[in-house]
């Protein structure tokens, strides 16, 4: 077929008048726009551009006149359609590859980037200068203001406990946060916070020692910085970059370490308890409490959980108990009471205000 006549309407770009008529093509490089009023207008095919957005989306405009619009209302023959500029359905390179191939390529690239984000922090985290990490931790503690509980007796008891679990490593600083939540968190730069809610649930100082030993294990293995880098990378990868990520205590508390990191911290805790001659039975009791609180967990949950299951951790600490061995208590009754009463006896401490 050579030549065609297709119904259309157009705006000439000079006036706001809508012209209706036909577009005549004789196989050459020009289109003749013939209006019902008898007026003709010649337009070079090479001068046409496809309008993908804006007024009359899907129309044709002219490079020489952006106000021009041409819309075919009749069926355009294949020969003429092949000469007209095409629009982008998904994007230039996607249209060239095809949607299935482009989707497969995107999935492959995403998988590689995700693998990098998840694995790179393991070797990058320990290489972050500790002075940088310490400044981050100090800033977080500073943001808490007067929300950490202190009394001379509780500070002395906590220092004694830390010295037993982390001797010769004075960088570790353990504070009591005035928050009724059963949790503890390791912060950058050797900072550890134990929430008062956890302390109140602990039945003896041995339970508290195992939990603090676990958090110190995160500090020693540089898990905190690894988790921060991983969370930051995931935020960027998923397009949800948050400038506050890693800058708040609760942001750190909400981050998950890998199950392997949790196991490493548990191993560190058991080693330090054994070295200090503190019974791991108390920590086993704590994990039994967590198991009872969480209820029965299906087997498949262990594959997606960020932490090992409480029963696994309880068994590991119970297996570490030496039979018929006379362990010494982590703290005296008076020292443990001083820690438990720290937030009550500190008259200047402030409460966390979430609203």
TrEMBL record:
This is M48 family metallopeptidase. Its cofactor is Zn(2+). It comes from the Bacteria. Residues 168-316 form the Peptidase M48 domain. It holds the Pfam family DUF7092. The lineage of its organism: Bacteria, Pseudomonadati, Pseudomonadota, Alphaproteobacteria, Sphingomonadales. Belongs to the peptidase M48 family. GO terms for biological process: proteolysis involved in protein catabolic process. Binds 1 zinc ion per subunit. GO terms for molecular function: metal ion binding; metalloendopeptidase activity. Residues 6-67 form the DUF7092 domain. InterPro entries: DUF7092, Mito/Outer_Membr_Metalloprot, Peptidase_M48. Keywords: Hydrolase, Membrane, Metal-binding, Metalloprotease, Protease, Transmembrane, Transmembrane helix, Zinc. The chain crosses the membrane at residues 102-124. GO terms for cellular component: membrane.
